[in-house]
Model the fold of this input.
Amino acid sequence: MSDELYYERLAISVAQTGSLLPRVHGEIVSNVNQLYPVLLSTVYGSGNVPGSLEGAHRLNAFVIVAAAVPVYLLARRVGVGTILAVVAGGLAVAVPWVVLSSFLLTEVVAYPVFCCALLALVHAVERRSWVWDGVALAAIAVAVLARTQFVVLLAVLLVAVVAEAVLSVGVRGAGGELWRSRRPFVLLYTGLLAVVLVAVAAGNGSRLLGSYSVTAENVRVDLELVELVFAHVATIALGLAIAPFVVGLGWLLDRIRPSAARAERAFALVGVSAFVLLAVQVASFTQRFGAGLVKERYLFYVAPIVIVALAAALGSGTWPRWWALALPAAVAALGFASIPVRRYEKLNVDTPVAILNDALLDLARTETWARLLLVLLTAVLLQALLLARAFLPWRPIAAAVAALALFTLPLETAYAFERLFRVNGTNGLPITLDQGTVFNWIDRHVGPSGRVTVFKYPVAGADFWAGQAYWWDVEFWNESAVRTAADMSLPDAKHWSVMFDQRTGAARDIVPTRFALVHGTDVRFRLAGSVRLLDRDAYLFETERPWRATWVANDIWSDGFTRPDTPATVTVFAHPGQEGFLQRLLRVSIASADPEAPMSVVVRSNMGHWSAEIAPGRFFEPQVLVCVPPDAPERVTIETQENTLVHPDPTKTAPEGRVDRHVGVLIRSIELSGEAFPLGRCPGAR
Done:
């Protein structure tokens, strides 16, 4: 995943520089959730990515299961007995979403940090003191560093505190109570509101979220959003086996009343507020950026809320009010009515609960009947609970539901891991296959202190993303790949033609590294230096200092095609300090871009011209002689009179760039020989 690459590169930057600031390719980026990369940096920095990745997976396992500790403490705070609290803590790390620990994602550290923040918020709401308010705000700050999404906890704390004041003294006295007992809290939130309003008025409100600023833009409130809220909640309900979800949330809703114990009421207010606000936040995100699909990966943090509530319900002696059970069941049923039930060949990281879809579709045959089955199952469970409420004591029912959770959730979790490892990854290889021994070839040759600049180039023709995977592997498996240049995957990347002085070839505004990686098919330019290695179709150069280009190609598309009716030029630069005229040899490989008709081409230099008619599927590879004077570069031209249509420019992602192009021929490779022969004068020189 590109997300994994991003967090790994942030971690490598911390390990290499010792700075906690988020940097990618040497540049500071606006990444707020830096906690996971900092933690990950403890196992990186040795120049051995396969070993570091193995250590990262071990670290992930320990970090994510640390959520059991705050969940245990939260259960104890609510009044749950020691044994049940231990079970709640264990069950919180046996949910199917714990499979995300197999990836380098912020969810690994965000899950336990969110649970810690929940504990701090419950303490703050219950104790009503400025000290605990400060602790809660500090916990929220740490949570935001773990995952920017958790800025929503500021709203959760505000809603829970205000609701607690209303339940304690009534609506009329709530304002006075807040000012009397939580004056610093009121002043701080007023200040935060002022900052947000000023930023919004200045048009910079979304920038407060750093790299997640886009998530605060173009927010819509409509029926589609409501439907997605229900669908996301229903997915969480399905992952929690429905009945435990209904009973847990039912107990929470029942405790939102003045007569409830203060600790239980505080937990209920925080839990329900967090559940609702997170569900709306995630639904809004997936509405705008997730093609309307359910992505409960961003919502599973609420699972411990339900689990602790279920443990508390088991210790309670009285049934929740009937509507408290009916409301979560109704929400889940409405969500099930529209939830997508699709088969996925492999574990879908965005929706791990979708592992259950195969069984549902095998049972119900169609997506519509699968939805109806879930709705009916929810209705039957609710009816059974309401009938039992009329005739049976509460604790045996709660114990049965808790036993269902204790049995079902670990099985779902085991099945999630089984699905992850059963199917080959996106690259067609087994997940457990050690690929590092192949892909970390750069680190092996430059050592742990080597630094490499990667020049990214489209290497897979029309399949641009297949080519991107090549470069992702380069960066993911090699710590030494610290910088990129002329990266055609970036819309604002500096064009290669302005990276070099067009008279001398000297590099401009580039921080040089000792090594450079250039793909063998890259026909845009070549740096001066010696080839240390040719592997995986790429050259690893040990570059000359200062950097300079030996040749630069202009008037071509970024993937090597010439432009129609425009000769491509290859500028060959003189050696630094060159005194006389030198004859150089330029080897060029040219192919016809037309798969059906031949194309003619003429290559010209100041020492002659070479022409051919290239048949489809064949290549023209002239040995081009060029005389380079000591005081100026010399140009070789490649020209064709024909043109043809080919696939869209793969480096363009905007709609206007995704149209077929008129091109000339395809330049497959350019190689400038290291040999040079002195000449008295170049032909035609004055």
About this structure: The chain has three domains: 66-422, 442-554, 560-686. The mean pLDDT is 89.
